[in-house]
From TrEMBL:
The lineage of its organism: Bacteria, Bacillati, Actinomycetota, Actinomycetes, Kitasatosporales. Pfam families: Asp23. Belongs to the asp23 family. This is Stress protein. It comes from the Bacteria. It comes from Streptomyces toyocaensis.
Length: 143
């Protein structure tokens, strides 16, 4: 006969194993958090966005935008470092947008992934001009 004394197997549940978070998970969290900031037009350089656009049109290549385009991370067991490449809308204060992106990304990664974000480096690679909105689509229709 076994007696149940209420004793459990050693320690708190959080100490009974290890949680590993893949880099791509942190990349997706950071990418989504950066896109949520007003004034961010897109992530990634013009070349990366063009290549991604072509990949999205290929049959069997998956659907939707790549959430991780323009995002690279280094993730350790306790910390993360994030690099972002963004395109901002014309007319917005770039330093303000970059600051908001940094704050939003840090908050999201620390809350969701439980990693201390040691740095978020932001490169503004382009400015989206109002008259550029339809140009890309127009060029794509002409073959």
């Amino acid at each position: 006969m076994t007696e149940n004394t209420g004793a459990r197997h050693g320690g708190a549940p959080a100490s009974r194993g290890r949680t590993t978070i893949a880099d791509v998970v942190v990349e997706k969290i950071a990418g989504m958090a950066a896109r949520d900031v007003p004034g961010v037009h897109a992530l990634g350089s013009g070349f990366a966005r063009s290549m991604g656009s072509m990949r999205e049109r290929m049959p069997g290549a998956g659907s939707g935008k790549s959430v991780t385009r323009g995002v690279s991370v280094e993730v350790g067991e306790l910390q993360a470092a994030i690099d972002l490449e963004i395109v901002v809308d014309y007319g917005v204060p770039i330093t303000d947008v970059a600051g908001e992106v940094r704050e939003n990304v840090i908050a999201a990664v620390e809350r969701m992934a439980g990693r201390d974000v040691v740095e978020v480096n932001i490169t503004v690679s382009d400015v989206n001009l109002p008259d550029e909105e339809g140009e890309g689509e127009e060029r794509q229709r002409i073959q």
